[in-house]
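Weekly sync notes, structure subgroup
Attendees: PM, AL, DS (notes)

Item 1: joint prediction request from the bench team. They want all four components modeled as one assembly rather than separately. Inputs as received:
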Amino acid sequence: MSWSIAQVARMSGVTARTLRHYDDIGLLKPDHVGANGYRYYEEAQLLRLQQILVLRELGLGLADIATAIDSEPDLIAALRRQHARLIGERDRLARVARTVARTIADLEGRPEVAVRINRPENLFEGFDSSQYDDEARERWPEDFERAQRTRESMTDADVERWQREATAAMIRMAEFMAAGTPVDDPAVLDETHQHWLSICHWWTPNRTAYTCLGRMYVDDERFKANYTKIAEGLAEYQAAAMAAYAEARLSD
Amino acid sequence: MSWSIAQVARMSGVTARTLRHYDDIGLLKPDHVGANGYRYYEEAQLLRLQQILVLRELGLGLADIATAIDSEPDLIAALRRQHARLIGERDRLARVARTVARTIADLEGRPEVAVRINRPENLFEGFDSSQYDDEARERWPEDFERAQRTRESMTDADVERWQREATAAMIRMAEFMAAGTPVDDPAVLDETHQHWLSICHWWTPNRTAYTCLGRMYVDDERFKANYTKIAEGLAEYQAAAMAAYAEARLSD
DNA sequence: GCTTGACCTTGACGTTACGGAAGCTTCTAC
DNA sequence: GTAGAAGCTTCCGTAACGTCAAGGTCAAGC
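Output from the run, pasted for the record:
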């Protein structure tokens, strides 16, 4: 069984151009080329492509991928180098981001608000969400059912991932707050949109409900405490952002 | 007073090639061009160049710089966009780095050691280093004098910056630990070299002294507690890294 | 047998922000 | 007068493709 370039492209999600490029640089040669010049790929090439795509996801360059994939022992070394590069680059971006935030504050003549941000890996670690079950079942019976089913469909790893992402989102929001970004700034609206989507994972709040949810983050001490663990005033900022988002993008 | 391209290059730290490039794309035109084709710059151009370099430091593209610099009101908007891009990119790199770490663990068949890492902005905030003064004066009288003078020469902002960087370095080290990187891996040696340099800011430990300092991070409860705030086992890892570095790169 | 449209090919240019080199002209100092 | 430093333009290269352009191939329907 052999596949044409477009078929492989559809199966793997890369473009035909990319496959030709990989052929050009010798990273992934087709199994054979027809008399008409067409490239034909076999399963072996698909497997190799999979490896390539995994390593590409990890940020390796195509040259590194080629050497790593063709000489297995180098792979771990290459990944370690890449890991070091990644965290170095991440820290550089973090520093630059802070400088940009300070510069914005300067330009606006705003006093430098030194917001202290804590960055836990996973704020919800060991968090027992069932403590809210009775209350939620009572207040929103239908939504509770849906949410319950969603929760049941998640593995531990899914939960872990979701918690990490939620924590990271809270931290990003704290950074917008620290940078003095108004809650109706497009960037904050986008970030809040992500938050709305993550809520939609469980239920779909309309304008009123979403605004209300934001208020709850402030009014309910348990929620507020979680936000405050990241940064002082974050619950209020988050609530304001949600209100602004609901106003701008949600309908009743 | 006009300056030639090489003079401007020396004054500003960019290359002449870069200045020609900025001329080509219209970002920074010389004040005038001589009959011989030479570019001559005046103070106005130097000021503009300074602005360009600041914005370039902040990660803006040259096109963005051009529009931002020529229409002041756009500047803050451009910076806000850039800030959002930066933290988005930073988070993406953080996610990829975690995946790489997991992949390495997989490939090595190592059990997934879930190290929890805390990432405070500044671990030493409100830290009173003078609590160690008496002890240090007693144990290393000469070095203490030098360190004291160094400390006096630093402004509050310097201290703040140093503390942030020290915290970030501890977090990076925790990540190497979480990734299972051996302490004698080149990346860890490099990171430890940075630590050694930061220590050299105050005094210059030789092989024995540096190894000893590492042991103190583990043995002295107060030091160890600080490392443990970032991650469990970090003090031991840091000490081992310092011993490996001393062994490999320092002499007695 | 012809047309149509989907699919394939190679080749070349554009992207970012310059680095580097070739080949030539100009300035400056001795 | 000449050497060497400095200047100029022009072109190629970078990473990983995207995006035409111009043309050949294939399968299906009429």
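Discussion: Residues 74-107 of chain A form the longest helix (34 residues).
Action: AL to compare against the crosslinking data before next sync.
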